[in-house]
């Protein structure tokens, strides 16, 4: 849940009007946090506005070609697409630095969009895909983290996991995973081990 960054209360919250992802229980706590928050807030607000400008430009180009198939448009306008993906990724990183759950959720949404629009190994797409499993884990969405690794990054699990259902308990072939994704898979296994030990000691 979202919390006031000062007192950690979860009720009666209002978001900062600049970054939209940091919450406070009242003006006093927002004022107390401003000396620390202002630099990150201004950067997040600036990148969000830049992101919307890039999105509006992309929409305008699409409106100029109303009969164009989206796939054909993406293929014929790589510079426009890459420009939008680049600023979207910068925005995701900016709100992620604010350290709130809302920031993590926003960054995850952006990275998933980037990953879905950029299926190649372009830098923005690859970096976004590397972030997605981490963000799922930070939000406690372990199953979705695993599903993303399986679907987007690993592909067919045959030969990677030595069982029919692709169990996390089986050893993985690290050569078929990026370093970031191999690390996330290891963290998932550690979480399962911790949960199993808690069950045994309960």
Structure in a nutshell:
This protein has 202 residues and is mostly helical.
What report would you give on this structure?
There is one protein chain. The two termini are 26 Å apart. The radius of gyration is 20 Å and the shape is flat. It contains 7 helices and 2 strands, in the order E-E-H-H-H-H-H-H-H. Helix 5 runs antiparallel to helix 6. The chain has a two-stranded antiparallel sheet. It has helices at residues 27-63, 70-76, 78-96, 101-117, 123-138, 142-154, 179-201; strands spanning 14-15, 23-24. With 202 residues, it is mainly α. Helices cover 65% and strands 2% of the residues.
List the helices and strands and how they pair.
Layout: E1 14-15, E2 23-24, H1 27-63, H2 70-76, H3 78-96, H4 101-117, H5 123-138, H6 142-154, H7 179-201
Antiparallel strand pairs: 1-2
Search tags:
mainly alpha; two-stranded antiparallel sheet; 202 residues; single chain
β content, as a range? under 5%
Using only C-alpha atoms, the radius of gyration works out to: 20 Å
Helix and strand content put the structural class at: mainly alpha
Q: How many helices in DSSP terms?
A: 7
Give the overall shape: flat
Number of E-type strands = 2
Oligomer: single chain
* Main sheet summary: 2 strands, antiparallel
How much helicity do the residues have? Answer: 55-70%
